[in-house]
Amino acid sequence: MSASLTDVSTHFEFGANWKDYSEKIDDEAIRHAEAGVLKLIPKEDIEGRTFLDIGSGSGLHSLAALRLGAKSVMAVDIDANSIETTRKVVAANWPEKNIEARLVSILDPEARDLGTFDIVYSWGVLHHTGAMWDAIDKAATHVAAGGQFVLAIYRKTPLCWAWKVEKKVFTNGGSFVRSLIRVPYIAGYKLRLLLTGNSPSKFIAEYKDQRGMNFYNDVDDWLGGYPYESATEQEIIDFMRARGFEPELVLELHPKLGLFGTGCSEFRFRRAA
Q: Is 167 left (phi over 0), alpha (psi -120 to 50) or beta?
């Protein structure tokens, strides 16, 4: 395994971004996180089940799983800031000790020791590993027989190649370079909202209701999201079927040019019993 795939220094500093965002987490943000999880997994499928959160970030989804009745949660991330933030956010909002947070990449050989879980959950993470298909394959091995695999992957667009270049430049650039990218992107985004009859200020104020994250943190998350890969829904479905999984839920995105980036297609698969 190439060290670059498991060395956080080669990746965008998602953990620092999540750490900053965690200071803004409130009860409303937690409720939105719960709603996001429930959109993909019925509550009755979570209650009493073991849950693996791959790429825990701020820890909000791990916390949501606990609050929705998971028997236990294992949260893993490659970034020490993310693990620290996950522990802090969960400890501040959950009284039980049925969670463990570990600093490990799903691509690491030691990840095999994690075992299997009723639910393996990875939202918007595996396309940032530098080896997306290998990461999906390895994550799937942690799903117990009859268990569920929930993931969100960037939807492929004609401009994904350009965004891959931009993200590499942003990640490796200093604050000045990042400002040169960030400022026109935000300005263009706001202009697009105006041209489509939407209020930028209202959109930003209500952004948490849609995405559960602060708009400006999310901008850096997108612009700096390197490594970067994407896939069509059918590519993901075919890949998972070849590994004994059937789709239970597919939330597709309409194919777009990708001028302002792309969103995540969301999936829930069931492993054969």
A: alpha
